[in-house]
Amino acid sequence: MKLLYDLSATQPNLSGKRHGGGRYGEIILLRMVGRGVKFGCFYDGSKWLNPEIREACERGGIMMHDVYGSSVERIVSEYGYTRIYSCLPSKRLPLLTCCEVYGTVHGLRDFETPYDSIFYHYRHSAKEWMKYLVKKMLLPWYRYHCFRGYSCYFNTSFRLITVSEHSRFAFLSFFPELKEDQMRVYYSPNTSSLEKLERNPNAPRYFLAVSGNRWEKNNLRAMMAFDRLVSAGRLPQDIRMVVTGTHGNSFRYRLQNPSRFSFLGYVDDDVLERLYADAFVFVYPSLNEGFGYPPIEAMRYGVPVIASPLSSMAEICAGGVLYFNPFSVEEIMNRMMMIIQPEVYNEYVHKGLEQYQRIVERQQKDLDGVIDYIMEVV
User: What homologous superfamily does CATH list for 206-361?
Assistant: First the structure.
């Protein structure tokens, strides 16, 4: 068996320069190189590629093929690859007949969370508005369209991997024809590749939210909750809210207390790591997750987390976070006030650290498990 790794799936996509699925693929690749696994990979030379990954491939003697101006089929044929693995397989990869295809499909957001009213409070392009209205007004047609798109993953020659028990049972719920033995579940690998930082005891206190530009992450409801609490005088004056992924121009909603918010836009991994390390509270009101990295990253530093329990969140975070109804601004306000009470705060510091350790143990086991599965000779 000769493996070709889809490195293009780790490059920038519609979710941004850095995205969870891409980071997932990078961690698997780095572990494979570290284990001395020999394989080739393909990438798109017209897009940014993480220098760390390029260096790891060069260090490990991994042959890199630029697919820009070429094709996967041509690379497979010319170099004799017999299997492809992708961390985010495009719909065309499972249809290839020139080799086996293994791929990780992280979740079913198109089916589970096709739309939500919070969308109206974000700024979007005309194209995004049209897509949203089609989903909302023609949901049965949209789901049928999605069903046809996902059907390629149920090809008997495609080996489907997913990242949580929630995602596995979501597939079985929406696609009754899918057999349980057609899927393997391996938890998403730990992304905390940086050395753990020391928390700064003198850092200002802030609630941290990430991916602020994406409506499905639902951070605007958390911002509205924080804004109302500030207006009502319910929060100490030294507590701010820091939001990454937007410069504050993603929203139609007008904040009443803009001076209490900091919008940082896209931040590099080292900056984000420092933000996690020094946060006072982490807020994650996401409406859908296949796995859900950010709360785990915060719990690593003993940062109390308040979060949505939807989709995979309750499975991954278990009792380590304080949950709220993500559709209720009032309940998010409730939890923001609750978590800053000293007894509750300290309770979730400890609960979060304990849950982080449990998840890391599973992640470490599953990282080698998924590589063994990808490399197995069937």
Answer: Glycogen Phosphorylase B; (3.40.50.2000)
> 3-134+148-189+362-375 in CATH: which number?
3.40.50.2000
Cβ-Cβ contacts under 8 Å for 192 (sequence gap 6 or more): 297, 300
Distance of CA 361 to the CA centre of its chain: 19
Chain-centroid distance of CA 329 in Å reads 23
Q: What is the pLDDT of residue 39?
A: 96
Low-confidence ranges of the chain (pLDDT < 70): 155-156, 193-194, 378
pLDDT at residue number 90 = 87
C-beta separation of 153 from 105 below 8 A: yes
| Max CA pair span of the chain | 67
pTM: 0.89
Q: Identify whether the C-beta of residue 212 lies closer than 8 Å to the C-beta of residue 250.
A: yes
Q: Is 270 exposed, middle or buried (0-12, 13-18, 19+ CB in 10 A)?
A: exposed
